[in-house]
């Protein structure tokens, strides 16, 4: 399978350019016809079945569960960790300074990595907090010493995605974008020429550590502290940020597995 077959080359077909009319009779008739077709197929199946309706329903549930389990067994899932460092929070006014992506399996084991430091344009705008942060961690110095424009970095990242997908035979895989508030990082990449969602293995389902942290703190604030207390603080460079995120994920995964195992042991006594 070539990368060209994996990459989506056009906008999704269901993306509408105009707001649909709520009272469109053709749209309503099409939906009604489809509903009637599906219902008639289901009625025919019930009429032909020798099983009583309650047993047929149970059989449907069993078949569906087996189908789902087969899909899970035959599919490979991965996490695509994403982090960018920028000169501020405004997508229109600020610029990317650093990009890093890591593909891991669901245990957090590294499969492949992409990293670029990007030279900002001469008209770059810095927010005060970003200027202080990235002057302190030497990212500005590193970025100004490079000759890597955002255009070239975006092209390199698209090539990396295609090459990695080819090597992984990723057409049957599911890659979940992951990170801390990963929607922020994906929006920056999309704004700068890399729409991650246009690649077939990329799932719309994200793994967001920020959401997990909010949930755990809502249940027991001390639990998050216990899980993450000895993880080093990030210096707001992509490498330390992703090191922290993946370490945090692995600890939460281990804690969850251990808790489920203890519950199972308790229930079997």
Description:
This protein is globular. Strands 3-2-1-4-5 form a five-stranded mixed β-sheet, with helices on both faces. The termini are far apart. Helix content is 53%, strand content 14%. The chain has 269 residues and is α/β, with parallel strands linked by helices. Helix 8 (209-219) crosses helix 9 (221-228). Strand 4 (173-179), helix 7 and strand 5 form a beta-alpha-beta unit. It is built from ten helices and five strands; from the N terminus they run H-H-H-E-E-E-H-H-H-E-H-E-H-H-H.
Brief overview, please?
The protein is of the alpha/beta class. The chain has helices at 3-6, 25-48, 53-74, 128-136, 139-144, 150-168, 182-191, 209-219, 221-228, 238-267, and strands at residues 76-86, 96-105, 110-117, 173-179, 207-208.
Outline the low-pLDDT stretches. Answer: 1-24
Please report the number of helical segments.
10
Separation, N- and C-terminal Cα atoms: 50 Å
Shape: globular
Helix content: 40-55%
N-to-C series of helices and strands: HHHEEEHHHEHEHHH
Quick check: average pLDDT?
A: 82
How do the strands line up in the largest sheet? 3-2-1-4-5
Approximate strand percentage: 5-15%
Biggest beta-sheet profile: 5 strands, mixed
Number of strands: 5
**Rg (CA only):** 24 Å
Structural class: alpha/beta
């Amino acid at each position: 399978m070539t990368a060209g077959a994996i990459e989506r080359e056009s906008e999704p077909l269901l993306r509408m350019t105009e707001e649909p009319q709520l009272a469109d009779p053709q749209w309503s008739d099409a939906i009604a016809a489809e509903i009637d077709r599906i219902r008639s197929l289901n009625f025919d199946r019930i009429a032909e079945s020798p099983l009583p309706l309650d047993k047929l329903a149970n059989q449907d549930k069993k078949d569906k569960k087996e189908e789902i389990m087969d899909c899970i067994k035959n599919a490979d899932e991965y996490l695509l960790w994403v982090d960018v460092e920028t000169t501020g929070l405004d997508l229109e006014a600020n610029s990317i300074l650093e990009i890093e992506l890591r593909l891991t399996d669901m245990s957090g084991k590294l499969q492949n990595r992409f990293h670029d430091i990007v030279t900002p344009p001469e008209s770059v705008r810095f927010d005060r907090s970003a200027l202080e942060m990235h002057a302190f961690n030497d990212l500005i110095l590193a970025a100004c010493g490079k000759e890597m424009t955002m255009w070239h970095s975006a092209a390199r990242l698209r090539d990396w995605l295609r090459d990695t997908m080819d090597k992984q035979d990723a057409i049957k895989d599911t890659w979940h974008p992951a990170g801390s508030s990963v929607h922020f990082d994906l929006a920056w990449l999309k704004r700068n020429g890399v729409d991650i969602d246009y690649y077939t293995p990329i799932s719309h389902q994200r793994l967001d550590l920020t959401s997990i942290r909010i949930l755990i703190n809502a249940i027991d604030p001390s639990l998050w502290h216990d899980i993450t207390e000895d993880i080093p603080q990030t210096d707001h460079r992509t490498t330390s940020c992703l090191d922290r995120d993946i370490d945090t994920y692995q600890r939460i995964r281990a804690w969850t597995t251990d808790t489920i195992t203890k519950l199972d042991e308790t229930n079997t006594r």
